[in-house]
Amino acid sequence: MVEKSVSSGHWPQMFDPFRNFGARVADWLAPASEASVNGETYRIAVELPGVAEKDIDLTVENGMVTVKGEKKSSREEKGDTWYFSERQYGSFSRTFRLPADADENAVSADLKDGVLTVTVPKLAPEKGTGSKKVQISKG
Q1: How far apart are the first and last CA of the chain?
Q2: What pTM value is reported for the model?
Q3: Which domains occur in the chain, in start order?
């Protein structure tokens, strides 16, 4: 008996449109964000309207800031006829890579008016990073 692999023949072409479907849906549900920098800090602002602070998980690990959470539906539909709804509910996750000079041990966050603002201070530049004359020894 010979087994045929699903990856042979016409099967891969048939499933190609669905291969990255999960990632596309996750991107569509991901909250809008923006990043900025000034002389002393990096800032990441993430739009999270309708998301309670208790439903947000903010972590910093290995130079990455991750915002996860869930927007829960609490609407009642007593006799209402919905013609359309563009509101989104469900879990979300966004990850941002921090620059090398970010101090990931001093990250702070603030949630105001549906916008989560993550502030990451820059590390102080190391003193003595200027040039130094190196002596060359005779072989």
Answers
A1: 72
A2: 0.65
A3: 32-74+81-121 (2.60.40.790)
